[in-house]
Design a protein that fits this description.
alpha+beta, Metal Binding Protein, Guanine Nucleotide Exchange Factor, Chain A, seven-stranded mixed beta sheet, 5 helices, about 20% helix, globular, binds zinc ion, carbon-sulfur lyase activity, CENP-V/GFA domain-containing protein, metal-binding, CENP-V/GFA, metal ion binding
Length: about 200
């Protein structure tokens, strides 16, 4: 698989207290034009690059702080911010919880940024008027007024990887007992995330 020869992507916050690495190609990079992302970033859209958390690691000694933040879906999200400059580096969203990491692609270093482009534009019904997606349409990108179904928007390999992740998520849930929530069934890589 492509992930074996993959040169890791690297990123950091503004003050470089937090540095991170991504060890496999992103499953998908969403360019989200929803009003929530506009507010959270203070700009026109966010670039959320999705990766299995087991392929994401914090490489700095200092770990980010996780800030419980409202989300449009109502499920909430944890935004990981540098404890010094408070730049947001990634989020954990919704059902997948900590199994997937939504990296804010603007925090990648210059080299990384060159390697990552949107794979889909979402919530374009609220995109700012001056954002022109003509070139993106020509590039053959899927453009959605709201959200999408993974199967429709993600590539074949990304869907296969996600299905494997889903199996692990379900197995962990079963092993943890039906009464346990996702916090108690964290993937092993989550040790990278401790904030103590
Ligand atoms: Zn910082
Ligand atoms: Zn959004």
């Amino acid at each position: 698989m492509e992930t074996e020869t993959f040169v890791p992507l690297k990123g950091h916050c503004t003050c470089k207290t937090i540095t991170y690495e991504v060890l496999a190609p992103f499953l998908c990079t969403n360019c989200c034009h929803c009003t929530w992302c506009q507010r959270e970033t203070g700009t026109a859209f966010v670039l959320n690059s999705i990766i299995e958390t087991s392929y994401f690691r914090i490489t700095s000694e200092t770990k980010p702080v996780l800030i419980d933040t409202l989300s449009a879906s109502g499920d909430g999200q944890m935004i990981a911010r540098c404890p010094k400059c408070y730049v947001a580096l990634y989020s954990d969203y919704g059902d997948d919880g900590t199994w997937t990491t939504y990296v804010r692609a603007g925090t990648l270093d210059d080299e990384g940024k060159k390697r990552v482009r949107p794979d889909a534009h979402i919530f374009t019904s609220t995109k700012m008027d001056w954002v022109d997606l003509t070139g993106e349409k020509e590039r053959g990108l899927p453009i959605f007024e709201a959200s999408y179904k993974r199967k429709e928007a993600w590539g074949k390999e990304a869907n296969e990887r996600f299905n494997r992740l889903k199996e692990k998520m379900e197995a962990a849930k079963e092993a943890g007992g039906a009464s346990k929530g996702k916090e108690e069934a964290l993937p092993p890589s989550n040790i990278n995330r401790e904030t103590d």
